[in-house]
Amino acid sequence: MAVLSTLRAQDVKQTLAQLSKHYTVHRPLVQRILNISFVLYVLGTTYRGLASRPTSGRQSKKNKDAIKEGEPRVAVDALFYQRLRHILRIVIPNIRSKEALMLVMHSTLLISRTAISLYVAALDGKIVASLVRAKPLDFALNIIRWLLVAIPATWTNSWLSYIQSKLAIAYRTRLTDLVMKEYLGGKNETGLEGKVYYKLSNLDDRIKNPDQMITHDIQRFSASLAAIYSNLAKPVLDVILYNYQLSQNVGAEGLIGLTILVQLSAALLRSMTPPFGSYTALSAQLAGALRHSHSRLAEFAEEIAFMRGEETEKMLVEREYATVILHEQKVLRRRWWFGCVEEGIVKWLWGSFGLVLCAIPVFFKLPGAANIDLGGRTEGFVTNRRLLAFIDAFGRVMYSYKDLSELAGYTARVSALLETMEDVKKGKFEKALVSSASTEENAKILQGRGEVIISDDIQFENVPIVTPNGDILVRSLSFKIQHGQHLLIVGPNGCGKSSLFRILGGLWPVYGGIVRKPPASSFILIPQRPYLTLGTLRDQVIYPHSQQEMTARGIKDDDLLKILKVVQMEAVVEREGGWDSVREWRDALSGGDKQKIAWARLFYHNPKYAILDEATSLVPPEMEGRMMEYATKLGITLLTVSHRPSLWKYHAMILHYDGQGGYVFTKLDAEKRLALQTEKQVLEAKLSDVPRMKARLAELKGF
Length: 703
Fold this sequence. Notes:
GO terms for molecular function: ABC-type transporter activity; ATP binding; ATP hydrolysis activity; long-chain fatty acid transmembrane transporter activity. By secondary structure, the protein is α/β, with parallel strands linked by helices. The radius of gyration is 39 Å and the shape is elongated. The protein contains 23 helices and twelve strands.
């Protein structure tokens, strides 16, 4: 039995020896196959890691915890890549664009930096080897090489940072130009396609803070998109090239084993990664809400001060701030424990794997490798140790998934803005409706759409007046006025007076009937509190024209001064320092002066129709009449909302809302109406004295 056992052992040794010899002979071919397989594996793994995949139940639960119901879903999935592709077509319109050229430059610099890193790794090993071998001449030459390679290395690194920043600016510029074009529109955009900035704030509930999304979110998205390319392309390139060079030094067999261990630990790390993309989107949303609460405080400072609402506003701002802080603290705790796990695996565990790999040529003789001295072993170890930067590169690939998740958050925000603006331009709105809108009759009205026909006169035929939240003020409004017929509109608050103007201006959709009206450019609105723009005194009168447009119309500053004389405001030019003086005009002018400037603006533009919403409430009656008469002289048809009886004589027609959904449209006889108004006031005064007279009569009966 002992002899048989010995023979079997010898057979096994002979078989192993033959296999080893056969493997040694074919090892170069095996190495090439393993290297090619490794490259394909790295590319495939990277693609699968970044490609869309269904959201797992665990990840779905994380997302639900991270974002509120109704918010855009944030994950690295098919929807994210669909959104990203759409935005990429905007920021990189074609391969000949400057953004595409900068990407090519960026890629070239990334390859150059990796090549320099490989050279530096080999040079580092030679420097240490020359020290171990005590060869001063070799050491000096290697130091000179080190200093020389520093020139292209520093140049390349600086250019990489510069090109990445330029890419971020280019992306932001492309996106901002498109968004502002859609947001503010063009001069030729009217009806449903125009006034997107107004409709986002008033007709749709999806975008709460468009100002923050345009300024902050687009900037963060652009910076993240510019960085993600470097964070992905450079590590993947490093992993491939470093591993190829490392396989030449220590063998592809050990490299494959190392890759298996790294992948197993990476899978563990990925399963423990919190939903950073959802956190990013929610952080941006909460920051926007906090900023909005502060902007409201500044916008309504006067009203809040008069109402002594400081404590209430402070509570509201502190509530928004507390929500932000609670979320940030939650994210901070998640980042802390994830950072501990991440560093423990990526830096220390993977580092120990790399050290074991570097030790293979020292403790084992590789097939086909020549015998080397201590200096050679030291050189090989140092070079291989530097090449183990691929471990860090693989770690950066892992980190890039976190960056990609954050990019998904910004992409969701920017995409939501773009998609909502596109819907709004098409007349698709999403807004919370009042409870009455759900009734069958009201719902039928809200689902309908009317017809708008361009005409010189204004005519409504069975048009419902509906607010954006679905409140039906008038079910069927019909009236007609011709150009030159001034219309007075009266009625209680909330009855639909301003709603009529918004339909005429193309701000609100028409839910039924037929509206015949001139284009929106034929209307100018003068509200009770006129809008004064940033700029010169001249800009206040000619807004929204520029000085060049004013000159092109053949109008000079002397003509503007004549207009100011009509409203008795000519002294303001000298008082404020001339036409080119710049002020915060809403603070520099009184309420009455603001209304006069608005009337001067009306006379400058001389439109067909003027919408006056309590536009003379702060000027004296004599000035009110002067401006009305001058507007009539210019051929401007006035649509006036006012409760001043002194204005009745300037209007030919009246539209009177009763506040219950009804109305009366008829000719206005100012003298008769004024007489009736006077009689009504006398009767009301007498009726108010009846209770007092009855009480006095009861007292007299007691005597």
